[in-house]
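Okay, any thoughts on this one?
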Amino acid sequence: MTFMIRTRLYSLSIGLALVLPLFGAAQSNNNDFQSFWDTFKAAVIKADKNTVASLAKFPLGMSYGIRSVKTKSELVRRYGEVFTKQTNAAKCFAAKEPEKDASNPRKYSVACPDAAGNEVVVYEFERGPNGWKFVRLDNINE
C-alpha cells in the first residue's frame, strides 16, 4: 500500500512539474501583453507617434485597398490614416480592452467603431521573438 501511494504521489508531482510551467508561461504572456497594451494605449491616446511606431512590426498590414506601412518613419507620417481616418482609436482604446484570440494565445485584437458606430475597425497585436507588437489594421467591411 505504501508503495502504491508513493507511486501515485510521484506521478502527481511529475504531472504538476510539467503543467505548472505552462500555466506560468500563460500568466507571463498575459502580464506581458497587459504591460504592452498599457504602453501602446497611452501612446495612442497622447498621439505619441514615435512610441507607437516603436511598438509596431513592419510591414504593418492594412485594410483591403490600403497599401501597407513599411517603416517606422512611414507610420509616423501616416499616423492619421491608421488611427483617426476610419475610427477615433484614442477614444476607443480609452474605453475598450483587447480580446485574446481564442485559437492563438499569441494574438489579441480590439475592435473600434466606424463613423456609423459599427465595431468593424480592428487593431491586431501579436507576440513574436521581440515581444508584443502592433501588426495589422483591418476594416472587416472592406
User: Anything to note?
Assistant: Residues 2-139 form a domain with the Nuclear Transport Factor 2; Chain: A, fold (CATH 3.10.450). Confidence is low (pLDDT under 50) at residues 11-27.
